[in-house]
């Protein structure tokens, strides 16, 4: 059984003012296993940033317990900080430092002795060894993102937190970045990911927690979350719909897209596809192509957070 590297029990954060109290986090409980890629998702204002800020030590929790790599946040805050590396959303680098000098400086700030530093290894892990001595200002956007990851790795934390790592990054750089993250994960680093690109979470994450309005509304494997989708969608190409004005079968919802394309929604649990074929044969519609869509994580996300 994998070791639990992060456990959160009853975590609550209340912001108070004279008018009212706002629960940014409400009795949140979950855990992350060693070696996982764990997704922490939620709409804007859900509480993700508050949670990361508590971990980073910039916000104090109201109540609850957090344990990282065996260290209690209340009793051993420095050890907790040393056990995590946080990659921020904003790119904030000194333009006149090289990647190598930035990592050396960051390692010194963490108290890593020169003999224990693995600067060159980290640069190779994030594919920046060729740019080791270049000015940071000369790096591309994707390289700067990878350098942020490298900075978070200088003290060799077992847990790496990526906060919106691909925000504003183009498709090629995004693929390159995820390739590097996957390699880090293969090396044994546990990854906690926040992102608004739900297709990334669907592809990358082993398990996902969804937070909405400070509440944990879902926690499961990506596969099981996708199984929550109850409807199936078919897009059919047909020979012609010129003379068809209305389509109707119990349990099916039809939408005519154009004179040769229609969309059909029905319950996955319903085993009525044969009825559909019989209906089309009866009214003289010939199917030329079928495309199925079982839905994706975005459908689950919308369903869980729409209220």
Q: Architecture of the largest domain in CATH? A: 3-Layer(aba) Sandwich
- In which range does the helix fraction lie? 25-40%
Characterize the overall form. elongated
Q: What is the string of helix and strand elements?
A: EEEHEEHEHHHEHEHEEHEEEHEH
Relative strand content: 25-35%
Distance between the termini: 37 Å
Q: Structural class per helix/strand content?
A: alpha/beta
Task: Explain how this protein is built.
This protein has 10 helices and 14 strands. It is of the alpha/beta class and 307 residues long. A 6-stranded mixed β-sheet has the order 6-7-8-3-9-10, with helices on both faces. The two termini are 37 Å apart.
Keywords:
307 residues, alpha/beta, Rossmann fold, Alpha-Beta Plaits, six-stranded mixed beta sheet, four-stranded antiparallel beta sheet, 10 helices, 14 strands
Per-chain topology:
Layout (H helix, E strand, L loop, with lengths): L3 E13 L4 E13 L3 E5 L6 H9 L6 E6 L2 E2 L4 H6 L1 E4 L11 H11 L9 H7 L15 H12 L6 E5 L7 H16 L3 E5 L3 H7 L2 E6 L2 E7 H5 L4 E8 L13 E7 L2 E7 L5 H11 L3 E7 L3 H9 L2
Parallel strand pairs: 3-8, 3-9, 6-7, 7-8
Antiparallel strand pairs: 1-2, 1-4, 4-5, 9-10, 11-13, 11-14, 12-13
Summarize the structure in short.
This protein is an alpha/beta fold and 307 residues long. 30% of the residues lie in helices and 31% in strands. It folds into two domains: 4-226, Rossmann fold; 231-305, Alpha-L RNA-binding motif (Alpha-Beta Plaits, 2-Layer Sandwich), CATH 3.30.70.
């Amino acid at each position: 059984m994998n070791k639990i590297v992060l456990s959160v029990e009853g975590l609550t954060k209340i912001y108070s003012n004279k008018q009212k109290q706002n629960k940014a986090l409400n009795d949140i409980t979950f855990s992350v296993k060693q070696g996982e890629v764990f997704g922490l998702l939620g709409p804007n204002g859900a509480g993700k940033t508050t949670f990361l800020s508590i971990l980073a030590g910039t916000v104090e929790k109201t109540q609850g317990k957090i344990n990282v790599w065996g260290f209690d946040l209340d009793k051993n805050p420095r050890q907790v900080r040393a056990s995590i590396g946080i990659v921020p959303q904003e790119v904030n680098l000194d333009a006149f430092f090289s990647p190598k000098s930035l990592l050396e400086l960051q390692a010194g700030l963490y108290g890593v002795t020169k003999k224990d530093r693995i600067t060159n290894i980290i640069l190779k892990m994030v594919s920046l060894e060729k740019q080791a001595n270049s000015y940071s200002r000369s790096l591309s956007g994707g390289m700067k993102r990878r350098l942020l990851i490298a900075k978070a790795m200088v003290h060799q934390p077992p847990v790496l937190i990526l906060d919106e790592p691909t925000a504003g990054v183009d498709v090629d750089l995004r693929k390159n970045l995820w390739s590097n993250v996957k390699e880090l994960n293969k090396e044994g680093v546990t990854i906690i990911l926040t992102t608004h690109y739900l297709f990334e979470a669907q592809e990358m994450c082993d398990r996902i927690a969804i937070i909405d309005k400070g509440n944990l509304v879902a926690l499961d494997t990506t596969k099981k979350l996708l199984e929550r989708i109850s409807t199936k969608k078919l897009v059919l190409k047909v020979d012609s719909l010129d003379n068809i004005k209305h389509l109707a079968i119990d349990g099916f919802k039809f939408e005519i897209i154009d004179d040769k394309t229609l969309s059909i929604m029905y319950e996955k649990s319903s085993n009525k596809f044969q009825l559909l074929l019989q209906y089309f044969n009866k009214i003289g519609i010939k199917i030329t192509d079928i495309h199925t869509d079982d839905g994706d994580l975005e459908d689950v996300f919308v369903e869980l957070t729409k209220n």
